[in-house]
Amino acid sequence: MSEPENKPQLEELLAQSNKPTELDPTAPPILTIDNLEMYFPVRSNGVIRRKIGDVKAVDGISLTIPKGGSVGLVGESGCGKSTAGRAITRLYKPTGGSVDFQGRNLAALSTRELKPLRREVQMVFQDPYSSLNPRHTVGAIIGAPLRIHNMVPKNKTLARVQELLEVVGLNPEHYNRYPNEFSGGQRQRIGIARALALQPKLIVADEPVSALDVSIQAQVINLLQDLQREFDIAFLFIAHDLAVVRHFCPEVAVMYLGKIVEIADRDTLYSRPNHPYTQALLSAAPDVKQAAIGGRRERIRLTGDVPSPINPPSGCRFRTRCPLAQEICAKVEPPMLQIGPRHKVACHFAGELGNHPTDPVTDRLLGVDVNGNPDPGASPVELDDKPGFGDVWFDLKARTTVKP
Ligand SMILES: Nc1ncnc2c1ncn2[C@@H]1O[C@H](COP(=O)(O)OP(=O)(O)OP(=O)(O)O)[C@@H](O)[C@H]1O
Ligand code: SF4
Ligand SMILES: [Mg+2]
């Protein structure tokens, strides 16, 4: 549904109070996710419930989050964003890959080993209605993590709760009210105060503003930005809409059916996306001006639903909905290729909108012909699929590796 013309857009509202968060390229990573997998078993009906497959909700994603920085994770409903967030914060135990948080692999730790680290990695949930227990007062909700982790002496808990309420812009005297006495935006502030109670270094915010009106969205995003600056907190900010993460995240990863398909710095991703899926998401976002995709009028429309993660399409998972798909796309999975200083994309025909190549850019690297069949004469290249960005990349135009 398109927004009425005179309704203030999220980006305008955000720009009124805070500048967009900038990338600090010198910040060391606080979190490195390498090939993270989260599969859920699918079992047969009946008495003996045999495993008959897997829901491959997250299927090998890699990225880094800089200390005190924020990375956006976007994609349509069902692509695995929340599952990724839950696997990172160990609400789920990942079935593969690693989650390095300050030198410790969260994915491999036992529950006991995890306890001290849980403080440092917190999650804020989408639904401010269901994520707060309606029978507990706000004071009890925010005070619970303080008590469990012995953060403050018992007689200081109330003072700390009130301080936290103030930090998130709520009246500290309202600690003995119940969640249903607050609006949606205020409840989300309560959820944020609860996450802040433990002074985390990283917050995974899972669609923290999706349930809110656009003006309240702007207030909550501005609050997160202020908190990030004040307390040096890193964020993985999950959203289904590219417009929502643009202001807060100088780096954005786009996810489709369990995989990251493109990841780049803000300017590159919004003005020169190279993956047809990112281009389609941008075409569909009412908040992102057309100028954002080079001012061109071409649009890629997304049709159909996201396929099931139990049986994802062979080769490129986007091929069943991709207007550019060719034979190679069904046969070979496109590798995640770094194509600029801070730009990676997984597409055989990566290119700017209206300027995609007619031949695949990946065939020679992968040792296949243009149709994706093995090419005995080719010499495949060992592709670097490490998280983050390297200092050499593949130049799409020259079709060679470049090192500036
Ligand atoms: N506990 C589970 N058991 C089995 N399948 C699951 C489980 N949790 C999620 N899934 C499946 O994994 C896929 C990804 O779900 P997920 O909730 O992570 O998507 P999402 O990107 O967060 O979507 P949304 O935007 O709707 O929140 C979906 O197909 C979902 O049905
Ligand atoms: S690899 Fe093929 S199907 Fe996948 S996005 Fe690129 S062109 Fe489309
Ligand atoms: Mg979700």
TrEMBL record:
InterPro entries per UniProt: AAA+_ATPase, ABC_transp_ATP-bind, ABC_transporter-like_ATP-bd, ABC_transporter-like_CS, Oligopep_ABC_C, P-loop_NTPase
Residue segments, region Disordered: 1-25
Listed Basic and acidic residues bias regions: 1-10
Database matches in PROSITE patterns: ABC_TRANSPORTER_1 (PS00211), ABC_TRANSPORTER_2 (PS50893)
SUPFAM superfamilies linked to this entry: P-loop containing nucleoside triphosphate hydrolases
Keywords from the UniProt entry: ATP-binding, Nucleotide-binding, Transport
Gene Ontology MF: a single term: ATP binding
CDD domains per UniProt: ABC_NikE_OppD_transporters (cd03257)
The keyword Metal-binding is assigned to this record: no
Keyword field contains Transmembrane helix: no
ABC transporter domain sequence ranges: 42-282
Matching Gene3D superfamilies: P-loop containing nucleotide triphosphate hydrolases
Superkingdom of the source species: Bacteria
Family: Belongs to the ABC transporter superfamily.
Protein name, per record: Dipeptide ABC transporter ATP-binding protein
Species the sequence originates in: Nocardioides dubius
Lineage, top ranks: Bacteria, Bacillati, Actinomycetota, Actinomycetes, Propionibacteriales
